[in-house]
Every structure is written in structure tokens, then in C-alpha cells.
Design goal:
Helix content is 73%, strand content 0%. With 213 residues, the protein is an all-alpha fold.
Length: 213
């Protein structure tokens, strides 16, 4: 039988994850990269920088996702919800690794502000978790809905020839939709419109910065 952690234990464990998440440890995927054996395409310098900017945003988004779910798990009231957060976090770890691999292929780098994205997102996730499981699930659902929409936008902005990036984003979009459906099935409370708008504004700010830095 596993050890039972108190809320304080889980918060301290989560803070330890913050320190690890803002370090330089390379993410390892549990699933094969969706790009597989798809041939690399020739991108001119403008296209390469553009695709790298998009993939840097997506990598930063996955850093945020890891932090959000760690914070939500730390604040979860029940083992069931904590397990759902961990399941989502495990799949997001795959996304993080795939985006990092694509950035390497593009001779680029993750956002230099990953420490900021992680720390801020962890605080938001913890607040959502402490608000109650149904609100936390609602936060997860809305987050995944917004991420799914932004991934579709990024797919449309990729050069048509860049099938490797497209394959990665398509699989990520499928996973995000599944996470949103899982949260809804588990009893997520719908978030008030002002909170949804604030979440989108925050995400848009992160995307604008991460594209370049």
C-alpha cells in the first residue's frame, strides 16, 4: 500500500517539482514521436525561424501544462482527481519531448523564460486545485479547449511542406481534446466567462513573448 500524503506534503512535493521543472532536465517521451520517418523538408531561413517560433510557443505551453497539472495534483481533494491530473501530465510530457526534438531539428532553442512560465503556471494550478476538484477539472477542460484551438491555428500557419511539425501538432491536438473530454466526464464545473477571457489573455501574452524569446 502506497504512502498517504497530507495536503502539506503534496504542496512541498509540488514545490520540489517546480525546482526540477525549471531546470535543464531533458523530457523523455513514453510514446514514439508522431513525425516518425517523415522526411525533413527544406525550409528557407524565414520559414525556419517562423516554424521554430511556433514550436517554441508549443514547447513553452507544455512547460506550462506540466506545472499546471503538478499544482492541481498538489491541491486535489481526492485520489481520483489527482490520478487524472497525473495521467494528463504524463501525456503532456510526451508533447514536451516532441517539441524539444523538433526545436533541435530546426537548430533552435526553447523559450529562455521557461522558469517564469513554469513558476507562474504552478501557482495557477495550485490555486485551481485548492478551489475544489470540480473547479480544478473545469480549469483543465478550459485550458485544453483553448490549447486545442491554438494548435489548430498553428497547424494552419505552418508551411505546407513541413509535414514533421504538422504530424506532431496533430497528435497533440488529439490528446488535448481527449483531456478536455476526460475532465468533462469527471464532472468539471464550467468556468465563468471573465475567467475564460483572462486565461486566453494570459496565454496570448505568453505566446507573443515565447515566439521570439
Amino acid at each position: 500500500m502506497g504512502r498517504t500524503y497530507s495536503p502539506l506534503d503534496r504542496i512541498l512535493i509540488g514545490l520540489d517539482q517546480v525546482l526540477k521543472g525549471t531546470g535543464k532536465t531533458k523530457a523523455v517521451a513514453g510514446r514514439d514521436n508522431p513525425a516518425g520517418d517523415i522526411a525533413e523538408t527544406d525550409l528557407d531561413e524565414t520559414q525556419r525561424l517562423h516554424v521554430a517560433g511556433l514550436m517554441r510557443i508549443n514547447h513553452a505551453g507544455e512547460v506550462c501544462a506540466q506545472a499546471l497539472y503538478a499544482g492541481q495534483a498538489a491541491g486535489a481533494r481526492t485520489v481520483e482527481v489527482r490520478d487524472k491530473m497525473q495521467q494528463a501530465a504524463d501525456e503532456e510530457q510526451d508533447h514536451l519531448a516532441w517539441c524539444a526534438e523538433r526545436l533541435d531539428e530546426l537548430d533552435s532553442h526553447p523559450s529562455r523564460l521557461d522558469w517564469l512560465w513554469y513558476s507562474g503556471s504552478y501557482a495557477l494550478g495550485l490555486a485551481a486545485g485548492l478551489a475544489g476538484d470540480k473547479w480544478s477539472l473545469g480549469f483543465l477542460k478550459e485550458t485544453e479547449n483553448q490549447v486545442e484551438a491554438h494548435l489548430q491555428e498553428h497547424i494552419s500557419r505552418l508551411p505546407e511542406s513541413d509535414q514533421r511539425s504538422q504530424a506532431i501538432l496533430e497528435q497533440m491536438k488529439i490528446d488535448e481534446a481527449a483531456h478536455a473530454a476526460m475532465a468533462e466526464a469527471a464532472g468539471a464545473n464550467p468556468l465563468p466567462e471573465p475567467i475564460r477571457k483572462l486565461m486566453k489573455l494570459t496565454a496570448d501574452t505568453m505566446k507573443a513573448i515565447a515566439y521570439r524569446f
